[in-house]
C-alpha cells in the first residue's frame, strides 16, 4: 500500500516536471529561473521518495565545478535539491523518454563521443560558468556508478572547463545508508533497470544520504590532471580513506579532511 500511494505521488510529480519543461520552452523568459525551478522540483522529489539529506562542510559561494562520486541516478536529484545547479551527462540521456526530457529542460550539458566532443563541451561549460556570478556545474568524473564503497579514478578531461573559466573545483562526497535489513539499495549498477530500482525505493520507509562538501580546489597553477587527482583524493578521503595514496592525500587541503 505504501509503495502504491508513493508511486501515485511520483507519477504526479513527474507530470509536474514535464509541465515545467513545457513552460520553460513555451515561455523563454522562464529560462532565467531554470536552476531555481529545478531545485524546487528536486526537493519535492526527495519528499516523495522519503530521502533525508544530511550536509557536512560548507558550500563555496563562488562560481565552481562540483566533482562528485557517482553511485546512482539519485545523485542528480539529491545534488539538485541542495543548490541551484546544472549537470553534465552522457549524450545518450538526452534521447531517453521522460528522464531525457527533464534533463533537457533543466539545461544539462552532454558529453559527445568522438573527436572534438570534449573540446566543444569544455567551451559550452566555461561559457555558462562565465555568464553570471556564483554559477555551478556538477560532473561525475568517475564516468560510471559504483556501489559507493570506493571511488574510481577521476577522468581529467572535463576539468579543463574549470581552467578555461578560471573557477574553483569543489569535490563532493555522497554516502548512502543501508536499509534496516542491511541492504544497499541506493546503487544503480550492473543489470539494474530504472523501474525496478524505483520500486525498491518506494517500498522502503526512508533512505538517508550524507553529502560532504570538501574544500574547493583552485584551478590556478594546476593542470586538469592535477585537479582530477586532488579532487579524487578529497572525495576518497571521505568515502574510503584506506584507499587514498599517501602522496595524494598529502596534497589535499586540510579543510577537505575535516569537512
Q: Descriptors for this entry?
A:
Glycerol-3-phosphate (1)-acyltransferase; disordered C terminus; 259 residues; single chain; alpha/beta
Description of the molecule:
The structure is a single chain. By secondary structure, the chain is an alpha/beta fold. The protein has a single domain, classed as Glycerol-3-phosphate (1)-acyltransferase, CATH 3.40.1130. 43% of the residues lie in helices and 15% in strands. It has 10 helices and 7 strands. It has a 7-stranded mixed β-sheet, with helices on both faces. Strand 3, helix 4 and strand 4 form a beta-alpha-beta unit. 38% of the residues are buried.
In brief, what are we looking at here?
With 259 residues, the chain is an alpha/beta fold. The chain contains ten helices and seven strands.
Amino acid at each position: 500500500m505504501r509503495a502504491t500511494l508513493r508511486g501515485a505521488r511520483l507519477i504526479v510529480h513527474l507530470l509536474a516536471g514535464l509541465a515545467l519543461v513545457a513552460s520553460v520552452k513555451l515561455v523563454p523568459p522562464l529560462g532565467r529561473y531554470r536552476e531555481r525551478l529545478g531545485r524546487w522540483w528536486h526537493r519535492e522529489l526527495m519528499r516523495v521518495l522519503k530521502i533525508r539529506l544530511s550536509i557536512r562542510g560548507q558550500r563555496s559561494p563562488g562560481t565552481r565545478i562540483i566533482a562528485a562520486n557517482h553511485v546512482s541516478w539519485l545523485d542528480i536529484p539529491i545534488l539538485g535539491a541542495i543548490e541551484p545547479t546544472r549537470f553534465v551527462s552522457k549524450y545518450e540521456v538526452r534521447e531517453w523518454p521522460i528522464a531525457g526530457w527533464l534533463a533537457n529542460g533543466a539545461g544539462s550539458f552532454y558529453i559527445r563521443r568522438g573527436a572534438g566532443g570534449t573540446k566543444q563541451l569544455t567551451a559550452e561549460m566555461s561559457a555558462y560558468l562565465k555568464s553570471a556570478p556564483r554559477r555551478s556545474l556538477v560532473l561525475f568524473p568517475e564516468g560510471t556508478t559504483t556501489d559507493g564503497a570506493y571511488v574510481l579514478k577521476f577522468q581529467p578531461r572535463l576539468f579543463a572547463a574549470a581552467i578555461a573559466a578560471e573557477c574553483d573545483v569543489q569535490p563532493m562526497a555522497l554516502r548512502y545508508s543501508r536499509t534496516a535489513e542491511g541492504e544497499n539499495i541506493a546503487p544503480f549498477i550492473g543489470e539494474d533497470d530504472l523501474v525496478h530500482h524505483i520500486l525498491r525505493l518506494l517500498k522502503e520507509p526512508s533512505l538517508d544520504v550524507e553529502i560532504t562538501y570538501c574544500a574547493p580546489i583552485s584551478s590556478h597553477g594546476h593542470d586538469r590532471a592535477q585537479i582530477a587527482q586532488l579532487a579524487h583524493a578529497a572525495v576518497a578521503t571521505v568515502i574510503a580513506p584506506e584507499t587514498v595514496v599517501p602522496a595524494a592525500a598529502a596534497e589535499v587541503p586540510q579543510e577537505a579532511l575535516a569537512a
